[in-house]
Amino acid sequence: MNAIVGSHDLLLVTLDTLRYDVAVELAAAGRIPNLVRHLPGGVWERRHAPGSFTYASHQAIFAGFLPTPASPGPHPRLFAARFAGSETTADGTYVHDTPDFVSALAGAGYRTVCVGGVGFFNQQPPLGTVLPGLFQESHWEPSFGVASPTSFESQVARAEEVVAGLPHERRLFLFVNVAALHQPNWFHLPGATREAGDSRATHAAALEYVDRHIGRLFAAMSSRRPCFAIVSSDHGTAYGEDGYTGHRLGHEVVWTVPYAQFELAGPEREAVA
């Protein structure tokens, strides 16, 4: 990350509530081609979430504790606040003296922008201001939220406006919290009804919906220079497994998440330069 920070724009996308098993199945079945095109080897990496619900997980993520590879470690981190005794800070780790890497990137000259999705980013009650408050610029409106059937395309449109309005020389760190996977998601599956409610199938349909529009986000973020992207779930959710429904609980379908990191090539003029 020490070679990337300062030379690349940065994109962090959390596909809020996305289950690992659903993400893997859809990738293998060719149902999310725009995401698979960028996944290293065309597959999701299996990781463990740092929290079982949005607020806890994002507090950890912004402190540099991204989802951890689901294998024995220790695993070097991309970002880490400086503190004695860290066993996951390595030579390539971007080490900072702030409590979160969002403020560290702002100090390094990045414009830090949040495009929120679920309620913890809606800036309405005090709790909904904590995570967006880490950023220099934050955006949320009802059309970005969980109740909107067009939430992600609305978020992408705002992200495109952010990129277009930024001076070319200014580096950008854009964070997008995608609400479409979160309950309610029944409206993403043709024929599903409010009365029947959400299911694993509607969750999968929501991911297909996101895939249809995520190419625009990637194109915007790589329109100025190369972009380093992280796309991950913050936690999964249960649809009746072992009697559980939802998240903020300790179950395999909640703790296990899909993760990917990759570079989006910049425009030709940047490659030549």
Short description:
The chain is of the alpha/beta class. Helices cover 27% and strands 19% of the residues. The model is unreliable at 269-273 (pLDDT under 50).
Structural class: alpha/beta
For the terminal residues, how far apart are their CA atoms? 21 Å
Q: Average pLDDT, to the nearest integer?
A: 94
The major beta sheet can be summarized as: 8 strands, mixed
Strand order of the largest sheet: 3-2-12-9-1-8-6-7
Task: Calculate Rg over CA atoms.
Answer: 18 Å
Proportion of residues in helical segments: 25-40%
Estimated share of beta-strand residues? 15-25%
N-to-C series of helices and strands: EHHEHEEEHEEHEHEEEHEH
Question: Strand tally, please?
Answer: 12
From the spread of the alpha carbons, the general shape counts as globular
* Unreliable stretches: 269-273
Number of contiguous helices: 8
